[in-house]
Design a protein that fits this description.
With about 100 residues, the protein is mostly helical. About 70% of the residues lie in helices and about 0% in strands. Keywords: Membrane, Transmembrane, Transmembrane helix.
Length: about 100
């Protein structure tokens, strides 16, 4: 038996590339959703909770997805699901906020 420690498996190139691409896309989506909320307030009668959800929740979910993706890459785990989940949850939160703000 060998007394050498087992080498950790390296991350697959496809996972690394897809994670980096999704991180860049999630940054763009988070920024677009953050500034897109301000277009609702043209009449000045937006719902306060909807405005709060639209301004703060998507960027927070984006950052959590990015941090989770980077942490998974460092630990050599499947990483692309974290930024993808951040994008999808950000869009869902923004849609709910938009429904509240324009109701």
């Amino acid at each position: 038996m060998s007394s050498e420690p087992a080498k950790p498996e390296s991350a697959h190139l496809g996972d690394v590339v897809s994670t980096v691409v999704l991180i860049v896309v999630s940054l763009g989506v988070g920024i677009a959703l953050f500034f897109g909320v301000f277009l609702w307030d043209t009449t000045g009668s937006t719902h306060a909770l909807g405005f709060f959800l639209g301004v703060w929740v998507p960027p927070v979910l984006t950052v959590l997805g990015i941090v989770g993706g980077i942490a998974a890459l460092v630990r050599r785990r499947l990483a692309f699901v974290y930024p993808l989940a951040g994008i999808l949850l950000s869009l869902l939160a923004w849609w709910i906020a938009e429904s509240l703000a324009t109701a």
